[in-house]
């Protein structure tokens, strides 16, 4: 059973002992900016921010061997998924079999290169880059000699992770097959099963990465600046935590700078600045209108074409009695994008107006949910990509992408970017630095010890 530990935050009775806290283990929480000291952790344990509950680090047993094995196994399943037939269908002698890459190549042939690029990047290319990067880094750590460009490669992991959507593609495939199953016989190729294994292993691989341990293994850890005090926010001490490697850095006089360890650009908290989030939300709202008004795909059967919008597809599933599939499409394509835009707009409003309609813990949980669910809206785009590649029988039966496919893919990307550029530290602006009284802190003696990173 996984154990939990709260990062060390000195209480009022131990203020005089702050000097004993190691400056090597200080972290600035990315979500509330509180400066805390990490306690020693064993395998299976994780440390959470004592104020907002954000997970700061998570330890695993044999992390290098574990991540290397998972990444190599995932790469093998990806190779098998690309090499063999994916799915096929047969209807009275009319049928087709496709490979995984056909979902992108067919879209390119139908003059939808941007949608094809979106599918190819999120399902194959970015996961492959991520897996190769993890294998490269772990191999160097096991050899006790980091391989060339390890620091630059490690920096890419955080940026690539949110855009890998193999698990979403699996759901899109299942929805597509259920839609076709009612009128034709479905054949599941070897690639389908290996792809399901690939999506599952990719999820395990991402969860096996402990960036705190990874960066310590690559480049140890310089001490935080002299005078850094746990229990206060980093911003009020002129400090900023690196979002990539976690190192606490001093804020440059210009307000701009790079991390001393990983060389990533630093993002010090400068107050409530929601202009970028609002601009991206406005762009996503503009794109959401054509995404729903125009057809997302056009089905041709016996020479007759039938355009279908997002809501039209939901109603079609309802008419056929497929309520679960209709609910999935409605949730992913309508409920999630609209809820995400409204939630981000509301968060921008309350942090700028300092409204107290909900407590800060509730707001940060809303933000976490909003950031997590955004990628699942890509289900509808993947459904279109699979059906377009699979059903290609000319005027007898075929599916082509509609103009709404690109617009809806843009909505998903824009809302994800809006959630990423929103600064959750603004939610905690003006809040007391002390943790809630019901949240325990780690013992002082343990908090001052240097943890084992091996």
Description:
- The chain is an alpha+beta fold and 454 residues long.
- It contains 14 helices and 14 strands.
- Helix 1 (63-83) packs antiparallel against helix 3.
- The radius of gyration is 25 Å and the shape is globular.
- The two termini are 21 Å apart.
- Residues 11-20 and 435-454 have low confidence and may be disordered.
Helical/strand content category: alpha+beta
Q: Estimate the mean pLDDT confidence.
A: 84
Anisotropy-based shape: globular
Our count of helices gives 14
Biggest β-sheet: strands ordered side by side in the sheet: 12-11-14-13
Computed over alpha carbons, the radius of gyration is 25 Å
- The overall strand count is 14
Could you estimate the helical fraction of the residues in percent?
40-55%
Order of helices and strands: EEEEEHEEHHHHEHHEEHEEHHHHEEHH
The amount of beta strand, in percent, is 5-15%
From the N-terminal CA to the C-terminal CA, the straight-line distance is 21 Å
Top keywords for this entry?
454 residues; alpha+beta; four-stranded antiparallel beta sheet; three-stranded mixed beta sheet; 14 helices; 14 strands; disordered C terminus
Summarize the structure.
With 454 residues, the chain is α+β, with helices and mostly antiparallel strands.
